[in-house]
Write a structure and sequence with these properties.
By secondary structure, this protein is of the alpha+beta class. 26% of the residues lie in helices and 31% in strands. The structure holds flavin-adenine dinucleotide.
C-alpha cells in the first residue's frame, strides 16, 4: 500500500468493488481494504439471482423493482457469460395465500418494468408436471412462467474486482483496521500493513457497517437490523428450472437447480450478535426442509444436504416487518473539515451498477 489515496474504501464486497471501479474510471487513486478476502461477505452467500424481486411489488416498492430490473438488463447485456436469463416457474396451489388475479397482475407489472423482452405466460399443468417430475400434483391449480436473471455471485464479484484492478485500483486483503483518526485536514487509517491517508473514506462493509461506525466513532445517520438467510444445497438436481414457491406463512422461497446440485433458500432471521458470530440455526434448516417437502413427492431429509451456507444483510432500522423491510439502499455522506465519509447502507447484488453510479454522482461534480 502507498501512503495517500484519493479514495479509501473499506470492504471488498460487490458494492465496495463496484464503487472502486467507478471511481478509478474517473481517474481517482483508489485503495480497497478487506479484512478477509474478496467476496467473503454477503456477496458470495446470496440466492445468486439478478432480479427485481417479484415479491417487493406487493409492498409497492415500485422504484426499487424498476431500478433493479434496469440493472438486470445492464448486467445481461454486459456480462452475458456470467448473468443468464432463466425461466422461473410459479406453481399455484389451492391453498395459496395470494389470489390468482394478484399473481397475474404482479407478473404483468414485473414484465412491464423488465427490459429483456420475455413475457410471462400461463403453462398447462400437464406440461409442468411432465417436466417437474419431483413436484406434487395434488391441489395444483395453475402454473405461470416468467424470466429472471441468475448468476454466480462470487464469480461476478471477482470479475468486478479484476476490472477495478485493471484500472489501477489497489485491493489489500487480510488487512486489520486498527484505528481511524480524523482531523479537519486528513483521515488516517492505521492498519496491520501500515498507515494510509485520504480525504474521502467510503464504508462499504455491508452488514458490518454499524460495527465499524461504533468501533471507530464515525458519524452516521442510521443503524441497521442484521437479517440472516440460509440456503441448503441438495446433493442432486431436483428440478429442471428454478421454482418460486410460497411457504405456509406466505413467505417466498426458491428451489434453484445448479449443474449437479439444487439450492433451496432462503430464510429470514433477525440477528443480535456480532456479524462474525452468526451461525446456521437448526430451526432454519428444518423449516426449509419442511417447506420444500410440502411440494416434493420424495421427502428430503438432512442426509440429502451436501452443503449449507448463511449470508447476512443490513436492513436500515425503523422499518417494522422484517420480511417487508425495504431492500432499498441509502448513501449517508458526512463532511468533516476537508474530509468526507460516506457509508453505504444496503444494496442488492443486482443493484451494484446503479449504486456505484450514484456514489460517483454524489462525490464527483
Ligand atoms: C441470504 C441472502 C440472499 C440474498 N440474495 C440475493 C439475490 O438473490 N440477489 C440480489 O441481488 N441480492 C441478494 N442478496 C443481497 C446481496 O447479497 C447483498 O446486498 C450484497 O452482496 C451486499 O454487498 P456488499 O458489498 O454491500 O456487502 P458484503 O458482500 O457483505 O461485503 C462487505 C465486506 O466488508 C468486509 N469488512 C467488514 N468489516 C471490515 C473491516 N473492519 N475491515 C475491512 N473489511 C471489512 C467484509 O469482510 C466483506 O467482504 C442476498 C443477501 C442475503 C443475506
Amino acid at each position: 500500500m502507498q501512503f495517500k489515496y484519493d479514495v479509501i474504501i473499506i470492504g471488498a464486497g460487490i458494492n465496495g468493488l463496484a464503487i472502486a471501479k467507478a471511481m478509478a474510471e474517473k481517474e481517482k487513486k483508489v485503495l480497497v481494504i478487506e479484512k478477509n478476502h474478496i467476496a467473503s461477505g454477503a456477496s458470495s452467500h446470496s440466492s445468486k439471482l439478478i432480479h427485481g424481486g417479484l415479491r417487493y411489488l406487493e409492498h409497492f416498492e415500485f422504484s426499487l423493482v424498476r431500478e433493479a430490473l434496469q440493472d438486470q438488463k445492464y448486467l445481461l447485456d454486459n456480462y452475458p457469460d456470467l448473468v443468464k436469463l432463466r425461466p422461473f416457474y410459479l406453481p399455484i396451489y389451492k391453498n395459496s395465500k395470494r389470489p390468482l388475479w394478484m399473481i397475474k397482475f404482479g407478473l404483468w407489472l414485473y414484465s412491464f418494468f423488465a427490459k429483456h423482452g420475455e413475457k410471462p405466460m400461463e403453462i398447462s399443468k400437464e406440461d409442468f408436471l411432465r417436466e417437474f417430475r419431483a413436484i406434487k400434483e395434488e391441489n395444483l391449480k395453475s402454473v405461470f412462467r416468467y424470466f429472471d436473471g441468475k448468476t454466480d455471485d462470487s464469480v461476478l464479484t471477482h470479475t468486478i474486482s479484476k476490472e477495478a484492478e485493471e484500472l489501477g485500483v489497489e485491493i489489500a486483503e487480510k488487512i486489520e483496521l486498527r484505528a481511524i483518526e480524523i482531523d479537519d485536514n486528513i483521515i488516517q487509517l492505521v492498519t496491520s500493513d501500515g498507515t494510509v491517508e485520504t480525504n474521502l473514506l467510503i464504508n462499504a462493509t455491508g452488514v458490518w457497517v454499524d460495527e465499524i461506525n461504533r468501533e471507530f466513532s464515525l458519524p452516521s445517520s442510521y443503524t441497521i437490523e442484521k437479517l440472516s438467510g440460509i440456503h441448503l444445497v441438495i446433493d442432486r438436481v431436483l428440478v429442471p428450472e428454478p421454482l418460486i414457491l410460497e411457504t405456509s406463512s406466505k413467505r417466498i422461497f426458491f428451489i434453484i437447480p445448479e449443474q449437479e446440485t439444487t439450492t433451496i433458500g432462503t430464510t429470514e432471521r433477525s440477528e443480535d450478535s456480532d456479524v462474525d458470530k452468526i451461525r446456521i440455526n437448526n430451526e432454519d434448516v428444518e423449516y426449509l426442509l419442511n417447506e420444500s417437502n410440502n411440494y416434493l413427492k420424495k421427502q428430503l431429509t438432512r442426509k440429502d444436504i451436501k452443503e449449507l451456507y448463511i449470508g447476512t444483510r443490513p436492513i436500515i432500522k425503523s422499518q417494522k416487518d422484517l420480511s417487508v423491510m425495504s431492500r432499498e439502499y441509502k448513501l449517508d455522506l458526512h463532511h468533516i473539515g476537508q474530509n468526507r465519509v460516506l457509508h453505504v447502507y444496503g444494496g442488492k447484488l443486482t443493484t451494484f451498477p446503479s449504486l456505484a453510479r450514484k456514489v460517483v454522482k454524489l462525490l464527483i461534480n
